Amino acid sequence: MAGRGKIAGLVVLVLLALLPLGSGYLFSDFYVALVLRIFIFGILILGFDLLAGYTGLMSFGHAMFFGTGAYVAALVWKYLTASVWAGIFLGLGLNTAFGYLLALLCVRTRTIYFVFLTFAFSQFFYVAADSCRAIGGTDGLSGIPAPTIAPGIALESRAAIYYFTLACLVLAYVAARRIVGSHFGRVLVAIRQNEERVRFLGYNPSVLIRRVFLISALFGSVAGTLMVSFQPFVSPTYYHWSMSGSFMIMALLGGMGTLVGPLAGTAIVIVLGDVLSTWFKDAWMLCLGVLYILCVLYSPGGIAQIARNKTVAGLVSRLSGRAPERLGRR
Amino acid sequence: MGRLQAGLPGVTVSFAGVLANILYGLTIGSAYTLIAVGFSIIFGMVGVLNFAHGGLVMLGAYLGFSIMALTGNFWLSLALAPVGIAALGGIVERLLIRRLYGRDIELTLFLTFGLSMVFSNAVLLIWGGSSCSIQLPSYFKGFIDLFGVYYPKFRLFVLFFICLIVAVLWLFFARSRWGSVIRAGMFDIETVQAFGIDIYGVFTILFVVCSGLAAVAGVFVGAMRSLSPVMDLDFMTVALSVVVIGGMGSFKGALIGSLMLGFAEAFGAQVTPGLAKFSTWVVMVAVILIRPKGLFPER
Questions:
Q1: Which of A106-115, B136-145, B155-164 has the highest mean pLDDT?
Q2: Residue of B47, B49, B233 lying closest to A327 (CB–CB)
Q3: What is the arithmetic mean of pLDDT over A148-177?
Q4: B121 to chain A: which residues are within 8 Å by CB?
């Protein structure tokens, strides 16, 4: 079964790798850009899922890591150096610092309070970016030059950015897979199921949660940086709560607690957003909202629910299925 | 006007300055109370995280704006906008949220997030993106001399009006039979049901009342400040911060948390004018570090 999954994964990967070759002949460049956006958000969603799906701590503020990654990249590429690595690693560095501080605060709470805190802190970043003139304020920053991979080799053409991002996504996926399969990943699932027992076994859940929070932040940071290489501008909307909320919806649609599901959810949300914005123009957010509502009402397990028995990840998540929190108090 | 602005740059610690800040803090804090109490009670009792609560405040403000613009009667807008939003809250509970009772609590978060997207886009479509403000009747314009502070008449009215509402609410929760049903419901819904009380009916009424309160706050804030289609986010931040500060599902916590935020804003504006909008987070972080469950955790 795992073998079949691997083959399917390879086939998808090869198809994705071939995609830019057909642009201009078979379909327009627009579709390459669309898939590229799915890649970028896919990286973030992998990290998000480690925290929300596996550890069971829903973050309503993941846009703060995305936004910080994006802002750092924009500032570095615009004012310091055009190296893509400088952007990525400085973003990672700053997000490590922020992520660590926020983890210290957020880890003191669980469940719904965790949602509140992550929301409130991401809101802080939004207000800060919106009011700080030095980083562009409400208008954001534009005119960011294309970054370079090595001196002289610019990440400029759509295909170059596409392959670079695809490579990052594959790396992120492998990393997430390794984490999930590791001892650490199993303890995370155990924390979701019964934190008290994990503590009895001699682990310190707070330390582990801090760690996964930080890891998750780093995935978001890389996604933010890549976003700027794709669209050379940043604005406070990268910190907006609709961003954080859409991450939740992406993971929800795909089914949390699996790695492939949320990636599929990301693809659905992005394609849907695109289709709706061409069909409904100004009212597309309204339609997307209605769709979210329908999705929650009629398929709360996401599309992974349908394929649940067919993948290993699905089996794991079914065995470790979360007991729904009931109405009322224990 | 001169002395009113004593609270802005050039920090002057005077009796009038402090009093002015206290009054401003009380007024905005009281408006926050109306928002936060509803949000907190709905979570505490019904177990629903209503991320559309800020959207309801915003819709209330815009509805009030339209009624004011059409009729020119402020009292009519203060009465009708909350009624309309209360009805909307009831419909939302009946049609959507009711289906999620007994399921994973995070689902309500997703659902109300979708709802808030619908609300904010609806506001954008109906009223447009430009900012506007609810026009006050002439007798609410101008200032009143309060112990040397020139304070806007309207804000004073808002303060008294909300104090009245809060007093009524407090009496209702603390003294009335249905208030005790609601308080009991926060602890154990099954037992309340076992007494033969239609708890789902109570939930609907709770949504109606809390949405109405949100709209009252919306009309007041819309008249004191300006309206914009992104204001729901500010209200959500306020509601969440108050709940983090005061503790979930606690009436007292919501009241004190709101006032703390109001004071932090008012005094923050005097001490560090540019950074006043960050005062919310300063208070919140301080509270989390000292008491992670909030100042007055109900449970």
A1: B155-164
A2: B47
A3: 88
A4: 282-286, 289
Burial of A202 (0-12, 13-18, 19+ CB in 10 A): exposed
In this prediction, residue A63 has a pLDDT band, given cuts at 50, 70 and 90, of: very high
Residues in chain A with CB shorter than 8 Å from the CB of B233 are 123, 126, 240-241
Backbone angles phi, psi at B104, to 5 degrees: -55, 130
**If you measure CA to CA, which chain B residue comes closest to A281?**
B125
In this predicted structure, the answer to whether residue B262 has a pLDDT above a threshold of 60 is yes
Provide the domain count of chain A. Answer: 1
| pLDDT at residue B234, rounded to an integer | 85
pLDDT band of A43, cuts 50, 70, 90: very high
Tell me, what's the ipTM? 0.78
In a domain, A83, yes or no: yes
Q: Cβ of A330 under 8 Å from any chain B Cβ? A: no
Q: List chain B residues with CB under 8 Å of A292.
A: 110-111, 113-114, 117
Interface contacts (A, B; CB < 8 Å): 133
> Has residue B160 been placed in a domain?
no
Q: Is residue A276 in a domain?
A: no
Minimal CA separation from A110 to chain B, in Å: 10
A289 in B contact zone (CB under 8 Å): yes
Domain that holds residue A185: 35-240
Number of domains within chain B: 1
* B23 in any annotated domain: no
Q: Is residue B239 part of a domain?
A: yes
CA distances from residue B198 to A104, A186, B43, B189, B194 in whole angstroms, order as listed:
43, 43, 18, 11, 10
A94 in a structural domain: yes
B255 lies in a domain? yes
Residues in chain B closer than 8 A to A295 (CB atoms): 110, 114
